[in-house]
Write a structure and sequence with these properties.
The chain has one domain. A hairpin with a 5-residue loop joins strand 2 and strand 3. It has 3 helices and 3 strands. The protein starts with 16 loop residues before the first helix and ends with a helix. It is mainly alpha-helical and 100 residues long. Helices cover 36% and strands 8% of the residues.
């Protein structure tokens, strides 16, 4: 299920704290979202600082989470979903409804 794997160091790469705890520069993708690694999107942390304690975790952990997200989602669907509805289906349904 590895369609889009974020780039990153190999498991055998040497560990250097600064390299592993400094993500690439964030690029804004909308007013509320940013991206650091390819295919890694996140809410702009500045919008959450007041309510959510921000954690610093290593780049390899971010990439590990992103690489396993499809497997996790498939497991959740298999165990808990009666049907799976895509975001595009939801948007089409919402956009097709008249305004209230």
């Amino acid at each position: 299920m590895a369609e889009h794997q974020p780039a990153g160091p190999a498991a055998s790469a040497p560990y250097r704290f600064v390299e592993q705890h400094t993500p690439p520069p964030a690029r804004p993708v909308s007013e509320v979202a940013q991206t650091t690694f390819e295919h890694v999107y996140e809410v702009d942390p500045r919008l959450m600082e007041q309510h959510v304690l921000q954690q610093v975790f290593p780049n390899w952990d971010t990439l590990r989470i992103m690489r396993s997200r499809q497997d996790h989602l498939a497991w959740m669907h298999q165990h808990f979903a009666g049907i799976v509805v895509t975001g595009s289906e939801l948007l089409a349904e919402v956009e097709g409804e008249p305004s209230a």
